[in-house]
Amino acid sequence: MKNLAYHIITALIATTVLNAQTSESPWAVSVGANIVGVQDDTVDSDTGFGVPHLSLSRYIAGGFSIGAQFAKNSFDVNSISSDYLSVDGIVKFNITEGKYVPYLFAGYGISKFGTDSSKGGNFPSTEAARTTLGGVGLNYYFTDNWAINASTSYRSASEKGAYNHLQHVIGVSYNFGVQDSDKDGVSDKKDVCPEIPGLKEFEGCPDTDGDGIPDNKDACPEEAGSAEMNGCPDQDGDGIADNEDACPDKAGSSEMNGCPDSDGDGVADNVDKCPEQVGDVANNGCPWDDGDGDGVADKDDACPEEAGDAANNGCPAVPQKLIDFLQGDNSKILFRADSYSVPNNAISKLNDLKAVLEEYPDASITIEGHASEDGSSEYNQKLSDKRANSVKDALIAAGVDASRLETKAYGETKPVAKNDTKSGRAANRRVVFDRRVVIKIGE
C-alpha cells in the first residue's frame, strides 16, 4: 500500500492540465500506474501494483478515438512471483465533452503471465494469451494541456498460462497536435484573433486598454472605455463617445454632433463664428449686418442706410398722405399716341406730387413708362423710356431733386386694357402711382 500511495502522489504532482481529446488536439499520450487482480478461483493470487501504464491515441470523429496501450506489473500467483506485460489496440468513445469526460473503451491484444525466462522475447508462446477487453474511464481536464484519468477494465485471457483479470489504471494525459499560431494557449480553431496573442476569456483576443472589452469588439482598443460606448471613453459625459464627438471636452447634444449650442441658434459652437450671439445658419451662426438698426438685415433691406419698416422691405413707411395721393385720381397721366410730351393737363398733378415730396423729403419714386401696341415693340420700348424721362425732367424742372427719381421703361409689355380698341390703347398710354411710391407713365 505504501508503494501504491507513493506512485499515486507522484502522478498527481506531475500533472498540470488538459482539454478533451478532440479534432483540435487529436493526439493524447498517457502515463500512469496500473493495478492488476486475477479473476480465477482455482489459483491463489494477490493484487499487483506496477508501472508504467502507457498509451497513445488519436481522435477520429464523433467522440471516437483509436490507439494502443502497454502495461507492466508483477504479483504472486500460488506464492510464485509472476511478471505481467500487456499490449493492446483499443477503441475509445467519449460519452460527453467538457471538464469531466467519462468514456467507454474496448480492445484486443496480448497478455503475459509467467516466470519462465529461458524462452526468448517478451511474450513466449507458452506464457502469452490473446486478450479481449472492455471498460470504463474518466478524464478530468483542468488546463489546456493536461488531464488526470482513471479507468477500469475486464480482460479475458483464458488460454493456458493466462488468467482472466481486472486492470485498474490511474495516470495523467497530455493532449497535443493543436494549432496555436500566436502561442496564447487558445487553439486557432477557437481563437477569434489567431495572429495576435490574447486571453482565453476573450476567445484568444487581447484587451489592450484593459477595459474588459476585447480589441476585436472595441471601437477604441487603446483607450479605456465602457460597454455602452462600444469600448470608447466619453470624457464630457454627454452620452456620445469621444471618437464620434466633435467636442469631446464639452457636453453637447447628438443633434450638434456632441457639441453645445450656447446661443441656441441651431449652429454648434465648434462651427459658430458667433457662439454667444443668436445668428443664422447661412451666415455661420452670426447675425446678419443691419447697418441702420431697423431689424431688417442689410441683405434684405431696400434702404440699408435708412431705418425703416420690415413690412416695407426695410425702408421708411410710405406716408399716408402720399398713399392717398397715389390712390386718387392723380395716380394716372395719359399720353397722346406716338407722343412723349407731358400733357398740359398733367402739370397740376406733377405740382401736387412735388408738394407731397417736399413734405416728405425721405420719399423717393420710380417713374415707369408704358406704351400701347401701335408700332413695333422695339419702337414702343424706346417710346415708353422717353415718356418716363420726360416726366422725370418735368419734376426736376419743378424743383424735385433728381436723386429721388428713378425711371423704368416697359414698352407694351404691361397693358391695362385691350389694344384692339381705340379706348383701350388710350388707357395704356398712362402714368399710374401706387403705394410703393412708383409713378407709372402710360402710352
- Main beta sheet: strand number and arrangement? 8 strands, antiparallel, barrel
Element-level helix/strand string: HEEEEEEEEHHEHEHEE
Query: What integer value in Å does the Rg equal?
Result: 55 Å
What is the CATH domain class of the domain at 2-176?
Mainly Beta
Q: Mind telling me which CATH architecture of the domain at 2-176 this is?
A: Beta Barrel
- Largest beta sheet: strand ordering: 1-2-3-4-5-6-7-8
Helix content: 10-25%
Category by helix and strand content: alpha+beta
Q: Which term fits the overall shape?
A: rod-shaped
| Annotation field: number of helices | 5
Distance between the termini: 137 Å
Strand runs, count: 12
- Uncertain spans, ≥5 residues at pLDDT below 50? 1-19, 433-438
